[in-house]
What we know:
Blueprint lengths: L3 H13 L10 E6 L5 H9 L16 E7 L3 H6 L9 E4 L6 E2 L2 H15 L10 E7 L5 E5 L15 H13 L4 E8 L8 H9 L6 E6 L11 H4 L10 E3 L5 H5 L4 H15 L9 H41 L6 H21 L13 H17 L9 H12 L9 H12 L3 H26 L2 H4 L1 H35 L11 H15 L24 H9 L10 H53 L2 H7 L4 H25 L8
Parallel strand pairs: 1-6, 1-7, 2-5, 7-8, 8-9
Antiparallel strand pairs: 2-6, 3-4, 3-5
Helix pairs in contact: 1-22, 10-22, 11-15, 11-20, 12-15, 13-14, 13-20, 14-20, 15-17, 15-20, 17-20, 18-20
Amino acid sequence: METLIPIINRLQEVFLTVGAEIIQLPQIVVVGSQSSGKSSVLESLVGCDFLPRGSGIVTRRPLVLQLVNVPPLEERRKQEHGIKAEEWGTFLHCKNQIFTDFSEIRKEIEEETERTTNNKGISPEPIHLKIYSPNILNLTLVDLPGITKVPVGDQPEDIETQVQEMILSFISNPNSLILCVSPANSDLATSDALKLAREVDPDGRRTLLVVSKLDLMDAGTDALEVLLGRVIPVRLGIIGVVNRSQHDLNTQKTVADACRDEQAFLQRHYPSLASRCGSRYLARTLSRLLMHHIRDCLPELKTRVTVLSAQYQARLSSYGEPVEDHSATLLQIVTKFATDYCNTIEGTARHIQTSELCGGARICYIFHETFGRTLQSIDPLGGLTELDILTAIRNATGPRPALFVPEVSFELLVKRQIKRLEEPSLRCVELVHEELQRIIQHCSSYSTQELLRFPKLHDSIVEVVTSLLRKRLPITNEMVHNLVAIELAYINTKHPDFTDAAQVSASVNSQQTDSLDGKRWKNEKMPSEDKGPVTGFGSPAKAVNLLDTAVPISRKLSAREQRDCEVIQRLIKSYFLIVRKNIQDSVPKTVMHFLVNFVKERLQSELVGQLYKQPLLQELLIESQDTAQQRTEVSQMLEALKKANNIISEIRETHLW
């Protein structure tokens, strides 16, 4: 089980190389107020002086401290390899440089801190220090800046908020243990460290309290109640320690001597708790807690690494491989785009939308719902009043009174109605054209991920397909226009579905005879606005008035006029329905043949002909900078995850107990 902490240290180093905090690793975070003795506690754990000291904020960047237990120098000398020093340290930012003098380590920490921070300012960028010694236990700790209230010198006004946000970013990690340091000569109820720990760990499952400076309490008082947990209970325990005073530092008192004096002090003042307090007991407790915590977190850690590996592998696959053979790559992308485009129309695409109709389904909807309903909603007699019909009959007879309804008037009026079918037919072509344009974006967004890698190729493909559609639009419109023109060119009154005029006339006559006695028009002799009563429909002056007057004058229709009007209306309606049925059937077929199917058949050859040119290959297949950078980052992260997976795989079940 002792191997767990070094394994976590190796994982930490692996993920540091890619500069990402995607895995929350178990570690111990040291939190405390300014000058509460955090650095002294850490030095007592290491057994050496290596941290900067002074007044105010001394620790201004997070210090990730990895303690590694190594065999004594005599044993290592027998193995004929390794570093010839009892204990030493290394920094992550100083690659391959070994520090055997701990005063040099202190100097390097100070210089590295000044490199990224101005006067007394803080920085969230951590310093990574690894210390090897036979006198320490395996531990991973993070020393954070002390909690402060008032800015000093050039410190920013929000220094308190900055420090608290930095501390919370570390202790919010559910896999971290929180080591709160609070001096014994201050009230525990006012401890800022405990307050922050309670915010992220209200149950106290991850919190351990260290009461420092036990020797500085007022005469006649002691910390027994605090250490026994009667003031504020802490689940992982409360450990008291004695720090070295400034006088001890000035006289260069060693950490080993300080530990002996600490034990003597605890035996004198807290004999019942002496075995559960002190720096050595703290080191053993922290190591034990961290090992058990790592053991508890390990299953979730394994799962997290496995899931992330799969996600990053999928992302890397989506970015594709760097281009080597430009010709093959271009042909492959163009062919895939053309295939996806055709599949979207046919409804066999891999990416089928569920939020809205797309591709062939939408074209079908346009044909049978939008276009079909629009045609069905057109009234065969819309825009034709009885006055229009009667006027057309009169104009068709010329100077002679008509014995029968003139055929010319029927043709004139029915052509006028058929002409109304042209506008919705052209609108149908326009809607299908718009949908074919939308399919381009659908394919480039969902189906062909490679297009996102090459922006110039994407733009060129869109331009070629748009140009092809634009060229086919007027041809299709012309054909649809011709369909209506064909219907207008010859009015086939012998059509098998057309009602015979003689039958219509006979039917109208019989209906009129049956209802003639009982039917009377109101206001039979209603005068015109400024003239006498209407004497006849045939007077030339009245004919002019009928044509020029916007709102017809109410008057009685003669039986003959009523019969002629109804005959024409029935004939127009019968023939219009035949033509509407033809147009409703032939326009979708025309659009499919001249526009949709033509584009499907010619798309790939058009793309290859326009884009597969040697001078264009290099230019079209230039990757976007974002894609190239993201591929590199994802590749590095995937490599780190593979290493992490290998490291975790080294742990056997027997190591966990």
